[in-house]
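pinned: reference chain
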Amino acid sequence: MEAGVLGDDSTGLRTLNVWFNDLFQNRSAEFTPERLRAMEVHWRAAATRRAVARLRVRRGLAVLPGVARRRLEAEDTDTLEDVFATVQLPIGLLNIDYAGNNIRNLNHVREVLANWNTGHTSGKQRSELKLLGFADPPTLTPLGQAAAAAPSLEEIARLWCAWVQSTSDAELANINERLLAAKRVFPQFWELQREVRDYFLAEAERPPDCADY
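pinned: its C-alpha cells
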C-alpha cells in the first residue's frame, strides 16, 4: 500500500496521521522468514496473471514519446520479471552469486575473508558471507576458515561446492534458501551439451578479476 500527499491543511494531515498509525499499528504484520516465503509463493502464483494483464495493456496502447514511452518501457521490464518468475526447475545460477547483492565472485569472497579480522569489512559484506555459508558473524564457519586458508580460488570453489552438496536441505534453507538452487543446479552442469560446458569452463579460466566460477 502506498500513498503520497502534498498539502498544508493541518486538519487533513491529522486525519492522515490517524489513518497511518491505525494501518501501521493495527493492520500490519511483522516480517518473518515464514511470512516472506509465503508472500513469495503468492507473488509467483500471480506472476502469469500480471504478465498477461500488462501485455494486454501494452497491445492496447500506441507507443508515444515522452512519459508514455517511458511508462511502456517500465511495463515491459516488469512483464519480463514476471515471465521469469514463472520459470521453474531446473533454471539456476552457475556461479557463486547467491548472496543476492555484492559478493558475486570468488575474488570478493577471498578479499572479505582476508580482511575479516582487520576491521576493514563492512556489516553488509559480513552478512553476505553468512548467506554463502562462510561466516556466522562475528566468526567464520569451518567452511570460512578453510576457505580463508585456501591457496587458490579454485580451492575455495571446491570447498564451497563440496559444502553445498554435503549440507542438508534444511540447514541450507535456514542459512539462505537460494543455496538450495545451487545444490540442485551444480551437478546438472555435467549434463549440459559438451560445447556449452566448454564455454563455461573457458570463461571460468579468464583473469581472476573476471572469474565467477
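why pinned: The chain has a mean pLDDT of 81. Strands lie at 135-136, 139-140.
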